Every structure is written in structure tokens, then in C-alpha cells.
């Protein structure tokens, strides 16, 4: 994969993570459990973040060790392959706890490139 492709994937990660954070803003954990459209939207957005992360080359991943690559891809796999047993608590924790530092790190990367 070329550097250009990696830059595109990193940008997809950032844009999609921001979109998920925006969608979740003003929502609550309880609303996620009861709102099917919110569930579908956030699930899909987190899947895309993980798929984009999976497309980033090993060389580029090594340049940015602060990004938890394996966990991001693992979450994507869990959502895709475990579609019938989704854990809304885990998804909410991912959105509220994991996305903000990921967004900050990706913004930092783009500021310096």
C-alpha cells in the first residue's frame, strides 16, 4: 500500500470517528440501548473506522504506536462477525472513551504532515 493510500485511510478514520462522535453527542448510554437507528449508525461508523485502520500498512502503523491498531481492527471484527450478539455497553464505551483520544491523535498526525 502506498503512502497516499495510507493517508486516505487515516483520513477516513478521522472523518468517520468524528462523525460517530457527532452522532453520539447529546445522546446517552440508555438512548443507545433503545434507539435502533442510533445503534445502526454508530455500529456502522465504528466498523468503518476499523476497516480503514485495517487498510493502513504495517510501516505506517509502526510510525504511530499511540494508535491502538489491533484493538480498533478487533472492534471492527467483533461488530461485523458478532452482529447477532452486539454488546451495546461495549459500543458505548468505545464511542465515549476510545474515540476522543483516537480523534485527537489523528488530528495531531494531520497537523504535522
Structure description:
- The protein is an all-alpha fold and 113 residues long.
- The protein has one domain (3-111).
- 80% of the residues lie in helices and 0% in strands.
- The chain contains six helices and no strands.
- The chain has helices at 3-24, 29-34, 36-54, 58-63, 69-81, 88-111.
- α3 packs across α5.
- It is globular.
- It starts with a helix and ends with a helix.
Write a compact overview of the structure shown.
The chain has 113 residues and is an all-alpha fold.
Task: Describe the secondary structure blueprint for this structure.
Layout lengths: L2 H22 L4 H6 L1 H19 L3 H6 L5 H13 L6 H24 L2
Helix pairs in contact: 1-3, 1-6, 3-5, 3-6
Secondary-structure-based class equals mainly alpha
Largest sheet, in brief, is: none
Q: Strand fraction band?
A: under 5%
The helical percent reads over 70%
Low-pLDDT runs of 5+ residues are none
**How confident overall, as mean pLDDT?**
94
Assembly state here? single chain
Distance between the termini: 18 Å
How do the helices and strands follow one another from N- to C-terminus?
Answer: HHHHHH
**Broad shape:** globular
> What Rg, in angstroms, do the CA atoms define?
14 Å
What is the total number of structural domains? 1
Q: Number of helical runs? A: 6
Number of strands: 0
Amino acid at each position: 500500500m502506498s503512502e497516499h493510500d495510507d493517508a486516505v485511510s487515516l483520513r477516513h478514520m478521522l472523518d468517520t470517528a468524528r462523525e460517530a462522535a457527532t452522532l453520539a453527542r447529546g445522546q446517552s448510554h440508555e438512548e443507545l440501548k433503545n434507539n435502533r437507528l442510533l445503534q445502526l449508525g454508530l455500529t456502522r461508523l465504528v466498523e468503518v473506522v476499523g476497516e480503514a485502520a485495517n487498510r493502513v500498512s504495517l510501516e505506517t502503523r509502526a510510525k504511530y504506536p499511540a494508535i491502538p491498531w489491533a484493538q480498533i481492527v478487533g472492534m471492527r471484527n467483533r461488530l461485523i462477525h458478532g452482529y447477532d450478539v452486539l454488546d451495546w455497553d461495549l459500543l458505548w464505551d468505545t464511542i465515549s472513551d476510545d474515540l476522543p483520544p483516537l480523534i485527537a491523535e489523528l488530528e495531531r498526525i494531520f497537523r504535522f504532515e
